[in-house]
Automatic annotation (TrEMBL):
Residues 242-313 form the RST domain. Keywords: Developmental protein, Nucleus, Stress response. InterPro entries: Poly(ADP-ribose)pol_cat_dom (IPR012317), RCD1/SRO1-5 (IPR044964), RST (IPR022003). Gene3D superfamilies: 3.90.228.10. This is Poly [ADP-ribose] polymerase. Signal peptide: none annotated. GO terms for molecular function: NAD+ poly-ADP-ribosyltransferase activity.
Amino acid sequence: MDRISLEDQVSMTVDDREIVDTDSEIDSPCLGSGKIGVFTRNGLTRLEEWNGDYGIIKKSFLKGMGQFMEDTNVVAIHRNSNTSLTGRARMESFRIFAEAVAEKEGGDGNIKYGWFGGSRDEICEIVNHGFSNCRESPGFGVHLSPANFAIDSLLSSPMDEDGLRHMLLCRVILGKMEEVRAGSKQFQPSSKEFDSGVDNLSSPRRYIVWSAYMNSHILPSYIVSFRAPSLRGFGRIQTPVLKPNSPYLKFPTLLSMLSKFLPRSKMVLITKYHNDYRENKLSRSQLIQRLRQQAGDELLMDVIKSYRNKQIKSRTRTLASMDQSNTGRFAAVA
């Protein structure tokens, strides 16, 4: 582990999260596995508890969980060793950019550790392919929370079917930072003088790495898998979770609706992809990508919106019926 002390640091057109599998309405894990062993199968190394890095990361993570520290249980920590050809290339690229930024800033590249919260599937994709296909935070770019504020990435870490949440600990080249106000539409440095953004220069709770730099200035290093208490009522968060506020559309329902518009040849392919996914031959993101290729974003958006509208109208009628019933009952009591 590169000894940068953790303790010293005290959008897609179609939202694939609106499409879920038959049996679940939560994010599917990478490669469809229900176990955290998926990380080792993707080239990461699980750290033993006696490992020195394990103790440092666990202590920093729990300290950064604030009010949830006592009720949070770290289940596993995996290290991204970057042993593959692509991994070594990413590490070398990070080193070169770190040196370039350091030279630009007079010798200090301002390299920190930061937390990125995501689903297990999303984190697997980032480790394997970089941040290019991940969701970007509101305001553009990738948002991470400082090493001592893991709690700020908690709501971006959805629980999987095993009751676990996952956070990615990354090394981040920040260079010279500029303050970016909440709600800003800024999508790049305001001038060549700056390398990254923060919400507050004196006490940052959010690091902003612009899209152009997200795969050169961020190096995924560790994954922490943990159990945390219910987040109901927990509202203090810098980076909101991007989840649909509409009814989920299950895959069989989607297939039924698409069959009204697509030729049989395409439906056969889509059904095959779905079966491959259920047999753990495809990851969820691969399934969604192939679905988009066959159906097209425009049709998918129309189908999802149609489903949404029907569900909303149905709920509205139900609520109206309940209101009429309650009004009559209260009138009788009066």
